[in-house]
Amino acid sequence: MSTQTALPAFSATDPLNIDLGYSDDELAVRDSVRGFLTEHVTPQVADWFEQGSIPIARDLMKQFGDLGVLGMHLDGYGCGGSSAVHYGLACLELEASDSGIRSMVSVQGSLAMFSIYNNGSEEQKQHWLPGMAAGTTIGCFGLTEPDAGSDPASMKTRARRDGSDWILDGRKMWITNSPIADVAVVWARTDEGIRGFIVPTDTPGVTTPEIKHKLSLRASTTGEIVLDGVRLPADAMMPGGVDGNGRNSYGGTGIKAPLASLSEARYGILWGAVGAARSAWVAAVDYAKARTQFGRPLAGFQLTQAKIADMGVELQKANLLAYHLGRLKDTVGLRPDQVSFGKLNNTREAIEICRTSRTILGGNGISLEFPVIRHMVNLESVLTYEGTPEMHQLVLGQAFTGENAFR
Question: Which residues does the UniProt record annotate as the domain Acyl-CoA dehydrogenase/oxidase N-terminal (predicted)?
């Protein structure tokens, strides 16, 4: 004789009961980050977006340090040593507030801090990482150049030896956090190949002008790194290496070193995109239930329900993919092509969810009184930075076929 237990109630925001797969500790981290953002960030972020700046950026970074989300997935040096799933859930909630906010945290932890953690000497780690984890030292990551985006190996920034010193010349573009950064991780071409350098931004010859007039990621501080005869001591160069377990990193030196940091950051993006899509979808559902047309709520029309259902299915598929990749990263590790799989799918689906949500809101969909248009234009950047959809298609195409079609 069989017995039946009551099924969990249907949840519109968790229809597949994915939360049942998370531990109490993972849910506590998620709820802590969500609560902080609800109180301190989300009520102001539309104004920051409209202004095109975050007036309290340095204070906010310190608050994120107090919250424990900066480099939270790194071990030691003041970092939390959290799991990949903990970090993913934090990224989801950060981007549900705003993609620029998640970028601010991601660049600090997964690009600047991870680069030093993965490639730096012990002395470099001890010197820089504790302050960065606390948010009192702000970092940025200089790889992209005006003429080197998808092909970073073609960078023109040069580092040449002058006695025991290094002299750096070049220009990096579209660098999150650079105008407020205390330190930049800069990748440059040397006679021995591409190497990473830790560059304090108060070094003579370093300027970090802010980029204005952008219509995406406006609640984010974006700039350049201009290097004009910047003299650095020999120990500014990172020696290179692998992370503690050697699983989730390309390690070593050359172009593989910055690509390892990009892979780490892309992992956060594939979670974050789910957060942006969730925020837009919830706004569309709430609006459809409240808005009356032709004597009935918009939610009562079949075409509106079809949109809501299709968006909900794609949202939860992306959510499941992030969950699965997070569990893989915490157990056997993630291959770069698996990260590409998640980044390609989740950013692509997230932006379509935002676009469809905007149609449900009609004219109100372009108003900053609702989060939809803000997420939609932010995702235009998220879709293409740290690897365009085409680049990730080629990564997967090579993985599926064994043929390299990049050139």
Answer: 23-135
* Residue reference for tokens 């794609």: 314
pLDDT in tens, 44-76: 999 999 999 999 999 999 999 999 999 999 999
Please report where in the chains the tokens 């531990």 appear, as a residue. 23
Q: In the 8-state DSSP scheme, what is residue 148?
A: B
For the question of residue 386 being annotated catalytic, the response is: yes
The bridge status of strand 183-190 relative to strand 222-232 is unpaired
CATH topology classification for 139-236: Butyryl-CoA Dehydrogenase, subunit A; domain 2 (2.40.110)
The topology under which CATH files domain 18-134 is: Butyryl-Coa Dehydrogenase, subunit A; domain 1 (1.10.540)
The DSSP letter of residue 237 is B
| 141: nearest Cα among 224, 251, 67, 69 | 224
Active-site position among 192, 314, 386, 403: 386
57-67 vs 24-40: helix crossing angle, rounded to 10: 160
